């Protein structure tokens, strides 16, 4: 296995464990299955299906921290592509079209990345 791929797998597994402490594994699996096909991802439906929309602001922040893989305080476009892997290691990559649509929906200040407040607003939309 390539070192970068191995590192991404470890990050995905760690993220999956952290996310399953916030959300129910069955809900995550159902949501991932619903958006298995490319270009079907809908962030509003996904956040509702995994149960994140109904969670407290603190839990949403915890989810944000899991998805912020480089701990920069933002979810950048490159991290957004792998957002489903943050919920489960076998989650698919978002297509470029899905990634850009997701970023556009969340990035209210136009800086090209998603901050914790933007993420929380998107989840609770």
Automatic annotation (TrEMBL):
UniProt KW keywords: Calcium, Metal-binding, Muscle protein, Repeat
Source species: Astyanax mexicanus (Blind cave fish)
PROSITE patterns: EF_HAND_1, EF_HAND_2
Summary of the function given for this chain in its UniProt record: In muscle, parvalbumin is thought to be involved in relaxation after contraction. It binds two calcium ions.
EF-hand domain boundaries: 55-90, 94-125
Highest taxon above the source species: Eukaryota
MF term (GO), any: calcium ion binding
GO cellular component, one term: cytoplasm
Family: Belongs to the parvalbumin family.
The protein, known as: Parvalbumin
Binding-site residues, Ca(2+): 68, 70, 72, 74, 79, 107, 109, 111, 113, 118
Pfam families reported for this sequence: EF-hand_7
Residues annotated as signal peptide: none
